[in-house]
Design goal:
mainly alpha, elongated
């Protein structure tokens, strides 16, 4: 049970994988920018009222932009881009 590395192997981060195709990457970035904003905006509006849709949208945008930035850094690491 404790000597089995399969459970932790799936959770490890590696940059040795091949980067995804550009079209897949663009779709991921669009989803990361829009889905969290809409979900948090609609969720906050559903829980506390429609007047809180815009604050939820703003919070979701912050989360989405952070996730997109992280995804972009992972792609750069896999491509070997140092950002300089």
């Amino acid at each position: 049970m404790f000597g089995d590395d399969r459970s932790t192997t799936a959770m490890t981060f590696t940059t040795s994988e091949d980067p995804k195709r550009p079209t897949v990457f663009v779709l991921e970035m669009i989803a990361l920018l829009f889905v969290p904003s809409l979900v948090m905006g609609v969720g906050l509006a559903a829980v506390s009222g429609p007047e809180n849709f815009l604050p939820g949208l703003a919070l979701g945008a912050i989360v989405g932009i952070g996730a997109a930035k992280l995804r972009n850094e992972i792609r750069g690491a896999r491509l070997g881009d140092t950002g300089e």
